[in-house]
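Support case: user asked for a sample of complex input and structure output to validate their parser. Sending the pair below.
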Amino acid sequence: MSTTAEDLQQVAKRLASYTAPEEVYNDLVASDGEEVDPFAQRNVSRRIIDRESGYHTRRLNRGISPERHDPFSEGEVNLESRSYTDVMREAELEREQRRVLQKLEEKKKEAKEAAIDQSSAQKKRRWDMATTVEAKATSEWSKTDEVTALKNRWDETPRVSIDATAETPRKRSRWDVTPMVSSKKSRWDETPANGNSQFGVTPVGNLGLITPTPGHLAPMTPEAQRWEKDLDARNRPLTDEELDAMFPSTGYKILEPPSGYVPIRTAARKLMATPTPMAAEGFVMLEEDRTQMYDLPAEIPGVGNLPFFKQEDMQHFGKLLDDKDESELSVEELKERKIMRLLLKIKNGTPPMRKTALRQITDKARDFGAGPLFNQILPLLMSQNLEDQERHLLVKVIDRILYKLDALVRPYVHKILVVIEPLLIDEDYFARCEGREIISNLSKAAGLPTMIATMRPDIDHVDEYVRNTTARAFSVVASAHGIPALLPFLKAVCKSKKSWQARHTGIKIVQQIAILMGCAVLPHLKNLVEAIAHGLEDEQQKVRTITALAIAALAEAAAPYGIESFDSVLKPLWTGIRKHRGKGLAAFLKAIGYIIPLMDAEYANYYTKEVMIILIREFQSPDEEMKKIVLKVVKQCAATDGVQPQYIKEEILPEFFKNFWVRRMALDRRNYRQVVETTVELAQKVGVTEIVGRIVEDLKDESEPYRKMVMETVEKVVSQLGAADIDTRLEEVLIDGILYAFQEQTVEDIVMLNGFGTVVNALGLRVKPYLQQITSTILWRLNNKSAKVRQQAADLISRIAVVMKNCGEEKLMGHLGVVLYEYLGEEYPEVLGSILGGLKSIVNVIGMSSMTPPIKDLLPRLTPILKNRHEKVEEACIDLVGRIADRGAEFVSAREWMRICFELLDMLKAHKKGIRRATVNTFGYIAKAIGPQDVLATLLNNLKVQERQNRVCTTVAIAIVAETCAPFTVLPALMNEYRVPELNVQNGVLKSLSFLFEYIGEMGKDYIYAVTPLLEDALMDRDLVHRQTACTTVKHMSLGVFGLGCEDALLHLLNYVWPNIFETSPHVINAVMEAIEGLRVALGPSTILQYVLQGLFHPARKVREIYWKIYNQLYIGAQDALIPYYPRIEDDERNNYERYELSMWL
Amino acid sequence: MDNQKFCFSSVTLRIDFGFQDRFNLNSQLEHLQSKYVGTGHADTNKFEWMVNQHRDSYASYIGHHALISYFAVAQNECIARVKFEFVEKMLQPCGLPVPRDEQ
């Protein structure tokens, strides 16, 4: 033993315990404070505000403006409301203020730059920024800013201050958050002592996790609140009364507290003194108890039980909870409460509550008045916590009351717009539609002059957000009132000399109109183009850009008509593309791209050549947006008639391939798609070989996304243009490349599969030499470890099976069939489905008799797979089995088919309609193969099951069996089954009859007399469904045998159908009406008319109502045919009712 | 424009419907029927019904050439004259309207 070993042992002994390194502790401590919720990402917030971008939240900056004066109203003028002049003046002021601020900012910047230039000639580093901010903060000017515009003085640029203020309420930097206010705490906010609960020095009572510690004084969840409340109640000091009650009155003495005693008041100390809940009860599972909401009432007085009442609702609806005596309130207050209750019911109530409340609020809208209604609805819509559903409901309320209020809404138009306009740019399509509908209704209710007067001040509003939404709203107004009504205003705005913002917005309105109304702009195209044309030469860059975009939108909407309207803008556009660079150029190019397709061939050719120079120059542009537009324009130019293939080949293609067919383009999804589309379009002009020849080598490129892009292009080009152009050499390279790309894929992609399938199918017979190689690739991949690879290989078989057959490779296919058969034990359902699909395509192609493995071996292997409940497997399997039953039933024993029948019954439950239909058809095939008796017995037994869908499918199957095996094989057994005294079975029989007569059509004439007694019975049954189904049967029957001489039986049935016309259940009355309709066809309208005439003027209204309904139905169906059958009515002293013409006789 | 007006009216209509009517499968059918002039309802009176019959009859005679030539021969008039008279008669086929009794 050496001393060193002893030393080591001693050292080891000195360690009392092994602990984790310090870093780990620190780590744990750090993460503990954050309380990371692993499901936080999954728990998607439903609040609208949480999914909005910074731009969208700018809506919150807009205040709901005070009411405006309605110049069209006859009543007295409300002095508080603002007139148009006031609003315009305010807007002017705001603009002026903005302008001054901007000036000041510029001046400051200049001064600063000058200072920097003076002080240091060295290179600017980003640290300089800090000093600039500081300088600004201390500057005198910025303080005035703050006062005037309520701006954050830390803003670097007051010009975009709107964004900044918009951001601040949402996303604050943690430095400017006061710890108590923020709802989500970072660990930095907490006091160090109890921030780290587990390893903290002071053992505060926070082991129970939810107990309030000083660090968590403001609990965040209702859960925590509940706990807190609970604890407070238990831990509160006992009062004197309680103590008196507890102790006997004698034998105890109440002591005076010592004179120096002061009770402890600090919260933290108090909590330390109390026992934690942990110690008392141990761990408690929180029960999901939703009814117990502390602080939140379960029932609101006058509203009833609501499904939920959120904390945030208190803010708006709190008033309902103060138990004031209603008799003391004024009329106005009562009205307010009434509206509040209705709104609360609509927002939080159950659907029936909501419905009645919505009706009430609609009916009483005029009594309530526009003011009180909107003053409550609009703030709710601006609420921070609004969810989609709530917004939808409130918007619906506005929609409904708009109709009722009509012109009364005028003073509130702007308020409503402020709230509704943001919907127009919502990312949700339905929200946008809703917004459009409301604004359209609003503008119809308020009238065009009011709308223009209200929205005019927003057109040159300082905030771009406001201008944007206003432009969209205006386009909706235009679609509601028609473009001509708005045109004079638009022209004036687009020519505004006062501000470029107004021009910009005006032109944007035109753009939005084009987008919104599509080809409906055509009648006004010339006017619209002329209204904005001058914008192309505006001195403001932004105006020029938006003008070009508006023209692009107009041209897109007008395509393929209306080129003559664009004459006036052609020249400025073409000179423009030479003058501009960057964004402006992109917009101009876009406009040209949309105009060129409208031109006739000659002009298109000329202009394409003009623009192509610029386009080719811009091929190299690094700007993504520019790239997209250039690609789009090239596509549009190439698609026009006038452009010659020769020109494209020589001028465009070399540059195009050099710049766009690079690996980088494959990485961005949108670029990728655009490049593929454009290339395909070019291929339409120059042919397959030109394009495929250029890119085919890249199928062997080392970048996979790029290979994919090549493959997709090849697929699209070949599928559109065929492979006839491809010569032997190219064909070889192509197949080689495709095989390489197919084998080398690391992510199995449908693109590769489609490409492979398309090319092979296009080449047809020419692919024969390569089939051996392709097959061995498939076989190799079928054996792969990865399921995806196997699936893809099996899918490929089904794609190329037809071509293989055409090439005469039966032997190869037989081999593939055997291999697939061996893989039927596959455990991945997706793969199994594909394998079954592959087998089916092989069976389809080579036929039942020459199939290897033979059908008699194959089918028994499929029977157990029918039990598989995976949708894809189910579908593929039933398809294959159905195919075999159809074509090769004789290869399999009847007993096997019966076994399959039983399996099939379960498949009638499948969710997918295709599967159910395939199953039902298979029943038909099997019945045909082995005779209907056994199959029918199985099906009739199945009518007894409980499940409705299963029964319905069974009835369909019975009908199909009857159709395939002739009805007389089925009807006796079926009608016999009707004698079973069980509702479901009888209904099932009737339903089968209904389907049966629907399917067999005019074959039904031989069976009508057989089933009539049964139908008589059913039509007299007590059960409604009996009569309903029987009526449906009568309908199908009568439609089937029209003109075949079965009128006697049908008339007999009509007598049984007729008494049912007084049914009220919707399905029954519907069936009865349809039966009468069917009989009308078969018996002729006169018969029905004679029945109807009995009741048209019956003294009882209920009778008249239904008789007139039948009359109307009859009238619409056979208006002309009724003419000779109307009853002859005698003239009276006043009127002549006789139709004399009909009594003329030659 | 017209289309939108139509939507407007149809929506108001929907609001005005009672509760049961809205769930009735036939309500749509009734709406469709009400678009035909010749259809009736429980409060249609004899006069209105007859007027519709007469107008339909005249329209039908005019539409069927064989019928109108038959009438022409019977009345010894030319076809165009008979046609014209029928069209004229469509205006007030049964004479002056009967005043509706208010109930």
